[in-house]
Amino acid sequence: MKQIFTLFFLLYLSISYGQKNIYQSDKFEALSENHKILAIIPFFTNLDLKEKLNGNDLKSLEEREGYAVQDALETYFGRGKRRKKFSVDFQNTKNTNAILAQSNITYANIDTYTIKQLSEVLGVDGIVSGNLDLNILLSEGIPSDFSFIDYILGDANYGRIGIKVSDGETGKLLWKYEKEINKKSGRNTTDLIESMMKKATRKFPYDKER
């Protein structure tokens, strides 16, 4: 039994660590040389919940989760500026969302705009965006009922998140970090962002202390 437990534990570790992925463009330095301010936009969310919901309710929940990640990232970078130095500033998300609304850009249609268009509208040098695939409502917290057997059955996997930084002038992808969301990721959206960005912080390209 002990050997079986050890085998599953090692398997879990290999899967967990193998599913982290950090990408940085080889053109990052050239494209980001004059970057001074980035905007964080709401994340594109796809929910696959056990509970069946009508289309409008599902879209409303996806929007809520997308804005929750936007808020959590702003909180992280705000704390980060007090802990360490970034080479860029981050636009206040309330301002970001207000400017988008004034331009009739909503959560429902923001995906029809290019990075370059959004950067021009927001008056920033780059965009922080991303995708969120979830089978729970992360903003309400990760379920507390959990056992080791969940790892074996796959019930401990709650989805996946990808964070991207793109150049505003060219629209090119500069940096991307992807991570599976599971029981170890944190209790809620803020915990998740705090946890994953801490792991990526030494590779976050705008961190002056890298």
Describe the structure.
It is a single chain. The longest helix is centred in the N-terminal third of the chain and has 29 residues, at 55-83. This protein has helices spanning 2-18, 28-32, 55-83, 93-102, 115-122, 148-153, 189-200; strands at residues 21-24, 37-40, 44-47, 89-90, 126-134, 157-167, 173-182. Strands 1, 2, 3, 4, 5, 6 and 7 form a seven-stranded mixed beta sheet that branches. Mean pLDDT is 79; it is low at 2-19 and 146-155. It is of the alpha/beta class and 210 residues long. The termini are far apart. α3 (55-83) packs across α7 (189-200). The protein is built from seven helices and seven strands.
Low-confidence stretches are: 2-19, 146-155
The count of helical stretches stands at 7
Major sheet size, sense and barrel closure: 7 strands, mixed
Order of helices and strands: HEHEEHEHHEHEEH
State the separation between the terminal residues, measured CA to CA. 44 Å
Residue share in β-strands = 15-25%
Structural class estimated from helices and strands: alpha/beta
- Please state the average pLDDT score: 79
- Please tell me how large the radius of gyration is: 18 Å
DSSP E strands, number = 7
Helix fraction bin: 40-55%
Shape: globular
Features:
210 residues, alpha/beta, seven-stranded mixed beta sheet, 7 helices, 7 strands, 41% helix, globular
Which helices and strands appear, and what pairs or packs with what?
Layout: H1 2-18, E1 21-24, H2 28-32, E2 37-40, E3 44-47, H3 55-83, E4 89-90, H4 93-102, H5 115-122, E5 126-134, H6 148-153, E6 157-167, E7 173-182, H7 189-200
Parallel strand pairs: 2-4, 2-5, 3-5
Antiparallel strand pairs: 1-7, 5-6, 6-7
